Amino acid sequence: MAKVLKFLSYASIFSAPFFVTALDPPEEDLDAEEVPSDVVKLTSDNFDETLAASQYVLVKFYAPWCGHCKAMAPDYEKAATQLKGEAVLSEVDATVETELATKYEVQGYPTLFWFVNGNKREYQGPRTADGIVEWVKANMGPILKTMTAEESKEVLAARKGGDAVILFNGDVEEIAGKVADEARASATYALVKDGEKKVTMYRGSNETVVYDGEWTQEAVSAWVSKERTPFFGQITEDNFEIYMEHAKNGLFWVCLSPKTVEEDLKKYASEFVEAAKAQTGDVKFPFVWLDVAEFEAHAKEELGCSTFPTIVLQRGDLLGDREEVKVEKFLRTFSENPEELNAGAVDTFFKDIASGALEPVAEPDELDALDDDETEDQGEGEDLDDGEDEEAPAEVGSGGEEL
Length: 403
Fold this sequence. Notes:
About 30% of the residues lie in helices and about 20% in strands.
């Protein structure tokens, strides 16, 4: 599990601070003074009692030395105060309550769980005070929202590319409620009691999937979990975890111009869906697009997207479970010929990678970078120029749109 952080170095751009592995050594061990707090301290003595007494409980497992936990603590405290009387925000020192940490399979810090009437599911919400409060309030009460057909249309119209709406129709309230409460996939669950019995999932940029299996809670829940990941969709702070199980092979990223992203999605989405479906063999990559305006640093520094549109394949075990597998990055920009970006171009991209015609982007060696920094420090204040200013190199793809 320690290696999950390698993937989270990519994914945590959506929710920093995120967490550190439970196997990481402590940075420091400071005993903070006890101050009045609305965050309930849980131990093995009062854990079950707290869950039994409160319908809604958010539990944070942390380590005192964890930097990410410390950074999150003020926001968690503020959220606890705002939610006081509605939901309990609590925390467990996993370095002390080791039996609780083992019982709940805590392998990184902070790890959060949301309990409703004692039933647990993993918290996948934001780490800011406002975000925590908004998420908790949205997840209080029944997750399944009963509505009219007209109201369901409004919900679907408001859906964003990273979201999914699972719409139940007909006399399926009992099954729908159980599936929604289990909530193994991040989504909005809606029920329209009119019409024939049906379940439809709306996901990705414009994908629709209809359930055609047995009418049991177990079967529908399994279908929801399996189908939640779209062929091509937006990756966000709320949904990146659905891609984690696929990250052992890598991710295919699409960077579109922030100025024309809506127009470009209409133009390219179907092409990327077709390309994703066309993948063959055992190794298949999820296709995602990133909001470059919101995550500009990640797009430019981690993915290498400085012109648009650009496609990037990060190939390798992003979860890092296999140390021998190196993560490689392949990039191709269509900034000067955007009309050529289609399913065929993506297929050619993959073929060029497989044949070696397209080589991975050279990544700087961390030790070399440290050496360079040291050299710069040693040479600071010395004038090594011959008197002439060196012209700055032009950016790659300078004819296209740049960040």
